[in-house]
Amino acid sequence: MQTEIKQKPRYAIVAAVQLPSVTDLEFEASLTELRELAKTLGYQVVKTFVQKRTGFDMRAYLGEGKRQEVSNYVKTEFEADAADGEMIEALLVDHEISPSQARNLELEVGCEVMDRTMVILEIFHRNARSRAARAQVEIARLGYMAPRLREAAKLAGSQGRQRSGEGGRGAGESQTELDRRKIRDRIAELQLEIVAMDAERKTQRARRQERKGLAAVALVGYTNAGKSTLMRALTGSEVLVANKLFATLDTTVRALYPESIPRVLVSDTVGFIKNLPHGLVASFKSTLDEALDASLLLHVVDASDPGFERQLEVTDEVLKEINADIIPRILVFNKIDHVGDMTAQAECEAALTLKYPDCIVMSARRADEVAKLHQKIVEFFQQDLMETEIFLPWTAQQLRGEIYAKCQVLNERSNDEGTFLMVRTEPEVVNSILTQLGVPSGLDDD
Questions:
Q1: Residue 287's closest CA among 266, 272, 304?
Q2: CATH of segment(s) 10-123
Q3: What is the pTM of this model?
Q4: How far apart are CA 227 and CA 269, in angstroms?
């Protein structure tokens, strides 16, 4: 019997500067999100350092006194209470900082420094699965690394300019310049791959849109709003549900369960996040392509998040940018069970429904509330269905299975010649069945 090896904990600290334009609520929300991002990377955050300033220190982000405080903690205070071999591995900064700021801060505090952009890039890099997502993430990482090569060379004690002109390197070209040229070439190569993949995706989307009877709903919204939990509740599938930001980047598609007429496919898209690095915007939007194929969007919002209104605005902006704002949408306030006791939940629900009259307030962990959302989704896709009666002679009973599979049978009666079935379904399904029966449909198939 093998003994499970316990993974050694990785410790990190977080630091942030609060500018005058940032409210305490916004500041704390961003810090909480960074700590969650750290957890996704496998770090255990043991301390948070904050500082109020009118601007970032141009040399090393944090002010001199705060840098000394962080350094003392990393080099003295933490080690005094830590077990043998335990140490602070990283300082996570809640802003994007310049290469020189990161280098100077790293030299002073005595551990690796990762800014918010680097943290998110690393998570995207680890979790991207599809070809398109991997290519977009690699471009973003390379773009982030390029201006930091010189500082990395300084930190490593680079010898500066090389004299060799061999191997395609011009005379006097430094290693840093060579590396930057390699990065530019690789980015150009990846961009060509993405153009080809975009064309392929457009062709696939056109084919999907040509297929009739495909009902699709996509879940969109901020990461950790409970989308994956809601996805599992709506489809009865074992999709990944982890209390981590960006637990998955690639779209998951499952059928709505219990299945309905028409059959509805549900997709869970990548979650939004505050202050998404500019270099990752293209990568992020490419993962939302599934939303463009949907006939209905479920915009999932964490009802317990005090900053949900700003999240609503950002989601609306991005959906507009990818031309998904014209798709019908249901606003779903999830996690109402996280608000407080039953009285607090009732008050919150009343306030939300007053401000957003057509919204649904629910918990994905309550079966009765999931059932109501399920019914609303089915009703949306059934609004264009037709009701008609189909006569099925006794000599054509082999079509009964197809009728029950593709139609909602409202009632059934029989006589000596066959069965009369009152059904609700799509016009093209009725046309197909009547054609097999040799009966002119008289229905417009357009």
A1: 272
A2: 3.40.50.11060
A3: 0.73
A4: 9
